[in-house]
Amino acid sequence: MLPVIPYLNPNLDCYESIVASYLRWIGYDYTMLFENCWGLFFAADIDDDLPRPLEKYYGIKAKWFDVGTPLDQILTEADLKSEPLIVSTDIYDCPWIKAYRKHYFKHTLLALDIKENNLICIDPYFSNRIQSFNYEDCCEELKFGVFEEFSPRRDENPDFLLQELKKTVNSYNRADVFANVSNVERFLLLDVKTEPEYLEFSFDLIMLNKLAKNRLNFSNVLRHIGNLSKSLCFQRFIDRFEELSATWSLTRNILTRFFLCDDIKDRKRVFELLASVSDKERCLCGDLCEYLNESA
Which pTM does this prediction carry? Predict the structure, then answer.
């Protein structure tokens, strides 16, 4: 079995967790995966035009096989003795997760070996243990992929990292992508009653949680570049990203309470926090953009 150690980090989602685990296995720091995570949900048009960080900084891409391709055929191209296999599945089919055979939600695993009809996997999002996944006993269709290296890594080149960070932040600032953060309320299904047992699968709460975590992930990007460059100090911006993360977390918590208690005061408080965080995000983007351009 491949010796890939599951990397548990509460700021990463399931796919990010397996990518981080893979990068650590080959000796890379995964921090630059999050170079454009700040704009998630607000800068989709811009981010769609940017190279994916896994490709840009690590020279690696995920190659996916067509849905329905038999595993036997895939294993003629993907050798589990030397490279892990990405498995796109559903939590409904993962017996080590409490939602097994109860709830549907897309999920990603990393297979390290195969024994009979079981893939031996890691699932860092939910567990630090090796798991056995019966790929023939799935209700949802599986999709498989592999990581392919196609160019040298560039995640430790401070000049390149700073250049790319400037491009990203300047593109966000020019488009004023954070001006309408308060409009995130239009995505919130506040008129839909969410039962307590379904809260962990609520799109609203997942989105707000992701926004909170990505502020921390982006602050780590700044810390990483600052440590490599030696000439830049991002600490005051890192502090502000951590404050923003706390505000997004508070918003999520109050929204959770609203779903549980249906108190109109909580609904009003959510909208107040969204208006406040919109101004803070916009100011931070402008200030960071100015600092980066002056450092040229």
Answer: 0.91
